[in-house]
Amino acid sequence: MQQIVKSPRLFHNCSLSFPPSSTPRRVCMSNTAVVVSSVRPYSVLPLTTDPEEKAILHRMMRVDHAGEYGASRIYAGQIAVLGRTQTRPVIQEMWDQEKKHLSKFTEILSENRVRPTALLPLWNIAGFALGATSALLGKEGAMACTVAVEESISEHYNSQIRALMEADPDRYTELLQMIKEFRDDEMEHHDTGLAHDAESVPGYWLLKNVIQAGCKAAIYASERI
Ligand SMILES: [Fe+2]
Ligand SMILES: [Fe+2]
């Protein structure tokens, strides 16, 4: 919950808002203009003036945002095909979590003025197509896709966790906490896929390897473009 402190004397028609664990942000409104102060809003990214650190963190957030966007589109494609089956609630639950992950990264990108990858329109179509195509193989096909994608995303988050831990765990406490939480969600999705017969789809290992090669390529491209 935000704590609002009115400051009528200094800022006519203004308020100071305190999001949880954050620096106060001053928002001023008048009849003619809206002025947002330069005080930086809360973010899980630490403030930095080091261009190299900034570039690394921004690249991390860009690719994570792209990954969550792609994952969300995959589940949208699966729901489009399997939305009227008994599998819907399982897929919907995972999709809802991806939406939360995506919205957090969208917020971080916006707060830190990080541009998203230019490849989002491609991930929009490719993600949906992958989800829908895998679901056309049946529930097992959709789950095999889930296992492949979620394993790739978990490994990706694990490599980021390792890098941040090696760099400075105290400096990146909040970022690490968030990525670990998301990684755990992805591992749960992976296990859900296995529990729902992913491995019983014909050509499971081939399908999994092809999808994971695609995920690696998507990660590589989203970090750079
Ligand atoms: Fe996710
Ligand atoms: Fe996931």
TrEMBL record:
Keyword flag Transmembrane helix: no
Protein origin, superkingdom: Eukaryota
Cofactor note: Binds 2 iron ions per subunit.
CDD domains (UniProt xref): DMQH (cd01042)
Binding of Fe cation 1, residues: E68, E98, H101, E186
One Pfam family, short name: COQ7
Sequence positions that bind Fe cation 2: E98, E150, E186, H189
GO biological process terms, semicolon-separated: ubiquinone biosynthetic process
InterPro entries per UniProt: Ferritin-like (IPR012347), Ferritin-like_SF (IPR009078), Ubq_synth_Coq7 (IPR011566)
EC number, UniProt record: 1.14.99.60
Cofactor: Fe cation
Pathway assignment: Cofactor biosynthesis; ubiquinone biosynthesis
Keyword Iron included in the entry's annotation: yes
Catalytic reactions of this protein: a 5-methoxy-2-methyl-3-(all-trans-polyprenyl)benzene-1,4-diol + AH2 + O2 = a 3-demethylubiquinol + A + H2O
An annotated Gene Ontology molecular function: metal ion binding
Keyword annotations: Iron, Membrane, Metal-binding, Mitochondrion, Mitochondrion inner membrane, Monooxygenase, Oxidoreductase, Ubiquinone biosynthesis
Recorded GO CC terms: extrinsic component of mitochondrial inner membrane
Primary role: Catalyzes the hydroxylation of 2-polyprenyl-3-methyl-6-methoxy-1,4-benzoquinol (DMQH2) during ubiquinone biosynthesis. Has also a structural role in the COQ enzyme complex, stabilizing other COQ polypeptides. Involved in lifespan determination in a ubiquinone-independent manner.
Record note on quaternary structure: Component of a multi-subunit COQ enzyme complex, composed of at least COQ3, COQ4, COQ5, COQ6, COQ7 and COQ9. Interacts with ADCK4 and COQ6. Interacts with COQ9.
HAMAP family in UniProt: COQ7
Name of the molecule in the record: 5-demethoxyubiquinone hydroxylase, mitochondrial
Species in which this protein is naturally found: Coilia grayii
